[in-house]
Write a structure and sequence with these properties.
The protein is of the alpha/beta class. Helix 3 links the parallel strand 4 and strand 5. Helix 1 runs parallel beside helix 2.
Length: 280
C-alpha cells in the first residue's frame, strides 16, 4: 500500500487522507477512523526501517504518541535507566518495542501479546531487531488458559478483552490462548529479573501486579503503563512498598497512565530528568 507519512526525514511521501495522516513532532494531528478492514496494511519509514500498520485504526494514534512526540513521547523515560531486560506486556504491533530498542539498543526485550490480530505486524515490525523475543500469551497472575474476546469485524482493530477459562472447559477452542504468570514468562525467556516493565493489558494489570511474587516485583527498576478501574488503588498501595509512584487520575477517565520507580534507584534516575514529562 501507499505510505501515509508527514515530514519524516528520509521517508517517501504519498497522498494520505486527513484521517490517515501521522503527525510528527509538532506536526499534524491524528484523526483515526476506527472502521477499516483488518487486512489493509500500509507502511511508514522510521529510522531507516518500515513500520507496518493498519490505516484508520488505533495503530495510527499509537505510532504518533509513542514515536513522534519528541520529549513528550508516551514512554519517554530517563535514558540512564539502561535496562538489560525489558518486558513489553501488551506489545501490540511492536511500536513500544521499537522505541525501547532505539533508546537502549543492547536491551533484551520480551514482547508478550495476546491478540492474534496483532501478531503478524508485531513480527514484521520487530524482525530486524536484535535480541527481541515474542511470546504469544496473555500475561496474568497465574498460569492457565484464557478466552480471547475480539470486537466485531472491522471495528477497533487490534483491541481485545480476555476472560479466564474454567478447568473443565476445553483448553484450546477457537480464540483461546495460554495465560502465563510473570514467573513463567521469565522462565520461558531465560531471565532472572525484569528491569523495565511496560504493562498495557486492558485491565489485567490488577491480576498480574497483585499476584506477582515479592521477589520479582521488588527488583523491577521501573514500571510504566495503564491502570483501569477502582482496583488500581489496590495496586498502587502494593507498589508503594518499594516504588515511588507518579500518577494522574482525572474525574472523567476510567483508565490512566502511571509510572513507578524503584525507591532504590529514584535519586539516580531522576537527576537531570524532567519528571513532568511522565504525565505529558
Amino acid at each position: 500500500g501507499s505510505i501515509a507519512q508527514t515530514g519524516i526525514k528520509g521517508g517517501k511521501q504519498s497522498n494520505p487522507s486527513a484521517s490517515e495522516t501521522i503527525g510528527v513532532d509538532g506536526g499534524a494531528r491524528v484523526k483515526p477512523q476506527l472502521r477499516r478492514s483488518r487486512s489493509v496494511q500500509r507502511s511508514i519509514v522510521y529510522r531507516d526501517h518500515l513500520i507496518y500498520y493498519r490505516p484508520g485504526t488505533d495503530d495510527v494514534v499509537n505510532i504518533e504518541k509513542i514515536l513522534f512526540k519528541g520529549e513528550f513521547c508516551e514512554y519517554r523515560l530517563p535514558h540512564n535507566l539502561q535496562p538489560s531486560v525489558i518486558l513489553d506486556a501488551g506489545a501490540n504491533i511492536g511500536i513500544s518495542t521499537l522505541y525501547f530498542k532505539w533508546m537502549w539498543p543492547d536491551a533484551q526485550v520480551i514482547c508478550c501479546e495476546a491478540s492474534k490480530n496483532n501478531l503478524e505486524l508485531l513480527h514484521r515490525n520487530t524482525s530486524h531487531l536484535h535480541n527481541v523475543q515474542i511470546v504469544y500469551a496473555g500475561l496474568m497472575g497465574m498460569d492457565g488458559w484464557l478466552r480471547l474476546i475480539l470486537p466485531p469485524k472491522d471495528t477497533m482493530v487490534g483491541s481485545y478483552a480476555v476472560s479466564k477459562m474454567n478447568e473443565d472447559e476445553k483448553q484450546e477452542p477457537e480464540n483461546s490462548l495460554e495465560a502465563l504468570s510473570m514467573t513463567s514468562i521469565m522462565k520461558r525467556a531465560g531471565v532472572s529479573r525484569i528491569d523495565l516493565l511496560k504493562i498495557d493489558i486492558e485491565g489485567s494489570e490488577h491480576d498480574v501486579l497483585m499476584n506477582c511474587p515479592d521477589e520479582i516485583l521488588s527488583r523491577i527498576v521501573w514500571i510504566v503503563g495503564e491502570m483501569h478501574g477502582v482496583g488500581a488503588f489496590e495496586i498502587l498501595n502494593r507498589l508503594a512498598q518499594w516504588f515511588d509512584i507518579d500518577v494522574k487520575k482525572t474525574l472523567h477517565k476510567s483508565h490512566y497512565k502511571f509510572n513507578a520507580c524503584n525507591r532504590n534507584n529514584t535519586g539516580q534516575l531522576i537527576q537531570g530528568f524532567k519528571v513532568k514529562r511522565l504525565q505529558a
